[in-house]
Amino acid sequence: YKQSADQPPLDAQQAEGADLLRQARESGAEIIGSAEVWGAFDGPLFLADVEGRALVVRPRTAIVATGAYERPAIVPGWTLPGVMTTGAAQTLWRSYRTLPGKRIAICGSGPLNAQVALELADGGASVALVAEAAAAPWWRPLSAAKAAMSDFQLVRKGLGMMRDLRKRRIPLAYRTRLRRIEQSDGALRVVLANAAGNETSHIVDAVCMNDGFQPQNEILRLLGADMTYDATFGHLRCTRGSDMETSVPGLYAVGYCTGLGGAPAARLEGEIAGAAAAAQLGFGNAGDLSAQRRALARQRRFQAALWQLHDGAPRPLTDLPPETIVCRCEEITLGVITEGLASTPGHVGTLKRATRVGMGRCQGRYCGPVATRLVAEATGRAVDDRSHFAPRVPIKPVSIASILAAQEALDGGD
After folding, report:
1. 36 and 154 share a domain?
2. Those residues with Cβ within 8 angstroms of residue 183's Cβ, 6 or more apart along the chain or in another chain
3. Which end of the chain is less enclosed by CB atoms within 10 A, N or C?
4. For residues 112-134, b (16+ Cβ closer than 10 Å) or e, as one string?
């Protein structure tokens, strides 16, 4: 989705994506662009809006690959103009060749931050620093060795990014977290704290942040696919069989919507699920996928080691000031949520009704994980698969006209 129609690919990864799109177009499959799926029902039945036109799909099998969205750092000032997720900055640059600013700070945890820092620097931006919450990889040699044994090429790519950061004189600060963002004479002052609590600040005009990812699993949950809570990543993980089929017969799920696994693993899962779904419909058999399964096992080992390297423990919510905005859509602060927890403890759904947290356009995608953590801390109950906001139709903002058009299409039997 970050491919630009009128710009050449920036790197081998984007070129590979462009080639996959070309193969999909040449396969004879019908590709419907600009489609926003907003409803999913048993059957399965999918409802989508395509530039104002209703689309009703009743497939015999379905493969869900809705990806993930970024987890921002909830700190004072995270909603100020000029602050965005790292992936948003990458989309601006890759799709439109537009930089988010001239001088940029990038904060959070994970390899995406270093990758985007280099892309923006190559585009002409001055990157003040990359702040990484986790410790340097040499402090976890066993995890680094496991990653190298699983996929040495990806490890070499990561080492190359660290080398390129040094060549471009972009500081990489380990065990350093974003503390707050302040406005300062038309610019932004980004305040960081190291493991000892010592603060430093930088004046920039854009701040990019990525504290991990959340699977975009609303469709899967609406259709009743079983989920388990992954405490390591703090998100739900879809339960699947070896062919990527979920607990719902005929419903497959691949990639980031099932839990973090990396782009190479997502592609392998897609090959396995595609073959299995085709076989289920009577188009031959799944064939010999042993090579893909072995490669997928290696990628999963690599990802496990990678995120051990980037395991920066989540920041305690108790040290945030009460005026910190948690729900940006409804402008609900931490103080309001704390008061709501005192009067209506129990479940995040009760908190939602009491405070309106999670009732905005993003439907709790950004504030939901924080609200879930706060409820767990207030009640002393461990987070599980029932601790989260329940998805509801429409799962994305959609016009009333689109809903009416879908109803007319259903009534007409289209």
Report:
1. no
2. 77, 80, 189
3. N
4. bbbbbbbbbbeeebbbbbbbbbb
- Let me know: does 45 contact 192? Beta carbons within 8 Å: no
Assigned domain for 170 exists: yes
- Listed in sequence order, the DSSP H helices in 123-208 are 141-150, 152-167
End-to-end CA distance of the chain: 28
Tokens of 91: 């989309």
CB-CB contact of 320 with 78 (8 Å): no
In angstroms, what is the C-alpha Rg of the chain? 22
Q: In terms of DSSP bridges, do strands 176-184 and 187-194 run parallel, antiparallel, or are they unpaired?
A: antiparallel
- Give the domain extent around 137: 72-211
Positions in the chain whose pLDDT score sits under 70: 1-9, 312-313, 413-414
The reported pLDDT for the residue numbered 315 is 76
- The residue among 211, 243, 268 that closes a domain is 211
Boundary (domain end) residue, out of 211, 228, 260: 211
DSSP code string of 40-108:
EETTTEEEEEETTEEEEE--SSEEE---EEE-----TTTTSTTEEEHHHHHHHHHHH---S-SEEEEEE
What single-letter amino acid sits at 404?
A: L
- 334-343 and 348-355 are packed helices; what angle lies between their axes, rounded to 10 degrees? 110
CATH number where 335 lies: 1.10.10.1100
Q: Verify that 59 and 129 share a domain, yes or no.
A: no
Buried b or exposed e, range 362-381, using 16+ CB within 10 angstroms: bbbbbbbbbbbbbbeebeee
For 252-278, letters b (16+ CB in 10 Å) and e give bbbbbbbbbbbebbbbbbbbbbebbbe
pLDDT digits (tens, 9 = 90+) for 5-17: 566 667 777 888 8
| Same-domain pairing of 76 and 178 | yes
pLDDT the model gives residue 116: 97
In terms of domains, do 97 and 222 share one? Answer: no
**Mean model confidence pLDDT for the chain:** 92
One domain for residues 178 and 198: yes
**What is residue 363's DSSP assignment?**
T
pLDDT at 414: 55
Contact 118, 161 (CB under 8 A): yes
Token reading at 148 = 């190298």
